[in-house]
Design brief:
This protein is an alpha+beta fold. Among the domains are: 173 residues, Alpha Horseshoe (Serine Threonine Protein Phosphatase 5, Tetratricopeptide repeat), CATH 1.25.40; 158 residues, Heat Shock Protein 90 (2-Layer Sandwich). 55% of the residues lie in helices and 14% in strands. Strand 15 and strand 16 form a beta hairpin. Helix 1 runs antiparallel to helix 12, helix 7 packs antiparallel against helix 8 and helix 13 packs antiparallel against helix 14. The N terminus is likely disordered. The structure holds adenosine-5'-diphosphate (ADP). Adenosine-5'-diphosphate binds next to helix 16 and helix 18.
């Protein structure tokens, strides 16, 4: 007997194959996952780099633009020429060029604007013809007398004295309760003469009279007449202050500023003044003059680099300063926040409408321009042009991290592709595993088959040999015994032939070489031939066969011999797989448009899980060589093959220990259908 292949070995081999397959699937999957993670990381870096490069170019563009804008702004300072009216210049720089103030030194370092100015105006001195009137007004407080004393000089030839006398008279009249007369008198003083170039003292006297008139009007209240006078006074004051025409006598900056502030105070009073533009300009100019005066006091002309912006404080105000030198003067220009913002317009113009926002910080990292509180961290930083030393521009992305968004889009594509490839690998791996398992199982079955075939062939051959040897040696008693021996040999022979027939059919079947000849065949005749074929076997195994063949069955289109083979196999199995008291029944009947052959036994039956597989090649419920019955697991696969070729159907009903019924349904050909 051939020793069976230990199950252990085949299982190990099976496992080895599966392990190999798992590696073949898992290794590429893991590599792919690793590769994907690297690609994703690289993608993030690549996108960041791409955007950084893109925006760095934009940043460069903004820097260049700012540089040219700013140098143009600095160039405006070169318009300053020696001998220019400082107020005309001041007005132009502040109102037209966004400067917040200016200090001008001449080539020798002497302050040109804002000049501090010496004490001007009227001083009490005994030589002044108004001295008596002052004595009465300020020392004795005798206002009526003082008014009369002033009145004596109101027509004086010297306009300084005449205007001062008129103003003094108006003052004293108001003090003595004669307000209307005071206003009348003061008006005369305020508009006594036009303001002449080159006489600051006269201008100051005149402007003082006008300021006095403003305060008298305020006391009197906003009647229509007073409002008309108020507007006239204010217009002439505003026209004189910071005049660009250059025909006004120049006042020292502090006195100019004093008058400007008084006018602004008066404008806050009850009188309506509808020239809002003039008012706004005056406010701006007064503020700039105040800063210019403060800057002239605290900042020196040569204390720093030229043409670079620096930040400083003047009192409470933060200002940006810039020193510049022309051929004839040294300048300190003060830049307001708006001035700096307009100098930095290059950034604004470049980044408006892009996904990036910018923020400009000064050397102390204080915010200057752009988005005050941007989102997240800056993705790139660059220095400002050299006029802004130590300043920097930071770029941010609006609405979250655009790197993330751009990278995520790409990553999603990679992830999906990777995912699909992995799924594909798994599917292919799964299919390969299944095919391989099948192949392995088939191999195992074939191995079993060879062992079984050898075993099956050996048994009849051995018994035939013993019988033949006995006959040859003449060890037989009589003719009857030799006849019996010969019959035994014939039986073994028959068994062998049937087995070999099965092998051959199977082999042809495997090679697709079986051709069935479908002719009119009688189901009764088929059943008869099958019964005859198994008769001897049934008799020697004490197997009882009951046969029921319905009458007048139609002929079927079938290969007679093939269907006989089907029935022989089924009857053979029914006898083989029944232990004791073997009862087998064969029924042939018509069911609808089919003829059925059913073989029922009272044998060992089949569990459900085996039923599914008994038609597979080489499949045996008990495949051990120690089993009692012969056979090599081919019979039912041949049966199924033949039935399928006839477009028929084979079904099994079976339960363990309760016997089985195999039923073959063969369709009646169309010509035979009733
Ligand atoms: P074998 O040569 O082993 O009989 P078959 O292909 O004819 O091969 O049958 C396949 C298997 O189906 C058998 O090994 C047996 O276990 C089972 N089988 C077939 N017919 C019956 C039956 N009538 N009762 C119980 N088991 C059966």
């Amino acid at each position: 007997m051939i020793p069976p292949v230990p199950a252990f070995f085949s299982r190990r081999k099976h496992l080895q194959w599966l392990a190999l397959l798992a590696i073949a699937v898992l290794l590429p999957t893991a590599s792919l996952l690793w590769f994907m993670s690297r690609v994703i990381a690289n993608e993030r870096l690549a996108v960041q780099e791409k955007l950084r490069v893109l925006y760095q170019d934009k940043l460069m563009e903004a820097t260049t633009r700012t540089e040219s804008l700013f140098s143009r702004q600095i160039a405006t300072l070169d318009h300053i020429k020696p001998g220019m009216n400082p107020y005309a210049l001041f007005r132009w720089l502040v109102l037209e060029n966004n400067f917040q103030g200016v200090v001008v030194w001449d080539a020798d370092g002497l302050l040109q604007y804002p000049g501090a100015g010496g004490p001007m105006g009227n001083t009490v001195s005994s030589g002044n013809p108004l001295a008596d009137a002052w004595q009465l007004e300020f020392a004795k407080r005798e206002y009526s007398e003082a008014a009369a004393a002033y009145g004596r000089f109101t027509a004086d030839n010297d306009p300084h004295i005449a205007i001062a006398a008129m103003a003094g008279k108006a003052r004293c009249l108001s003090r003595s309760g004669r307000l209307d007369e005071a206003i009348e008198e003061c008006q005369k003083a305020a508009f006594a003469v036009p303001i002449e170039k080159g006489d600051p003292a006269l201008r100051l006297t005149l402007e003082n009279a006008r300021l006095l008139l403003l305060s008298l009007l305020k006391q009197s209240g906003p009647s229509p007449a007073n409002t008309a006078i108020f507007r006239r006074v204010v217009n002439s004051l505003v026209g004189d202050l910071y005049s660009s025409s250059g025909d006004r006598a120049l006042l020292p900056a502090n006195q100019n500023l004093f008058i400007a502030q008084k006018v602004l105070d008066a404008l806050k009073g009850p009188f309506s003044f509808n020239d809002t533009k003039a008012k706004a300009q005056l406010e701006k100019l007064a503020a700039a003059e105040e800063l210019s005066i403060a800057a002239a006091e605290s900042l020196r002309p040569l204390a720093g680099q030229f043409d670079t912006v620096f930040k400083t404080r003047l009192g409470e105000t933060r200002v940006f300063g810039l020193r510049h030198q022309t051929s004839s003067a040294t300048l300190l220009a003060l830049l307001s926040d708006a001035g700096v913002a307009s100098a930095l317009a290059g950034y604004h113009d470049t980044f408006t409408g892009t996904e990036a926002s910018y923020r400009i910080l000064d050397p102390a990292d204080a915010f200057v321009a752009g988005t005050a509180e941007p989102h997240g961290k800056p993705f790139t930083v660059a220095p400002l042009p050299q006029s802004f030393p130590g300043w920097k521009a930071e770029l941010y992305f609006e609405g979250g991290d655009i790197f993330e968004k751009a990278a995520n889009r790409q990553i999603a594509v990679y992830t999906w592709t990777g995912f699909l490839v992995i799924v594909l690998i798994l599917i292919v791996g799964g299919l390969a595993t299944r095919a391989m398992s099948r192949q392995i199982r088939l191999n195992e079955m074939k191995n079993d088959f060879i062992a079984t075939v050898s075993h099956e062939l050996k048994t009849p051959l051995a018994s035939m040999r013993v019988l033949v040897d006995t006959l040859l040696e003449g060890n037989v008693k009589d003719q009857a015994q030799s006849g019996q021996y010969l019959q035994l040999i014939a039986k073994e022979n028959e068994r062998l032939s049937r087995m070999i027939d099965n092998f051959l059919t199977f082999s042809r079947m495997e090679r697709n070489k079986v051709a069935f000849t479908l002719l009119d065949a009688s189901p009764g005749a088929i059943a008869g031939d099958a019964i005859a074929a198994v008769q001897t076997k049934y008799a020697s195994n004490s197997c009882h066969l009951s046969v029921e063949i319905a009458e007048s069955l139609p002929v079927i289109q079938a290969d007679h011999d093939a269907i006989v083979t089907v029935l022989v196999n089924l009857l053979d199995n029914a006898c083989k797989y029944t232990a004791e008291n073997k009862q087998v029944s064969l029924k042939v009947f018509r069911d609808g448009d089919a003829v059925c052959f059913s073989v029922t036994d009272n044998g060992i039956g089949l569990a459900r899980r085996h039923i599914r597989r008994i038609f597979d090649r080489f499949y045996q419920v008990d495949s051990s060589l120690a089993r009692k019955v012969e056979g090599c697991g081919l019979g039912l696969s041949i049966v199924k093959f033949i039935v399928d070729a006839h477009k028929g159907k084979i079904t099994v009903e079976s339960k363990p220990d309760q016997g089985s019924t195999f039923m073959v349904r063969l369709p009646i050909g169309p010509a035979n259908g009733d």
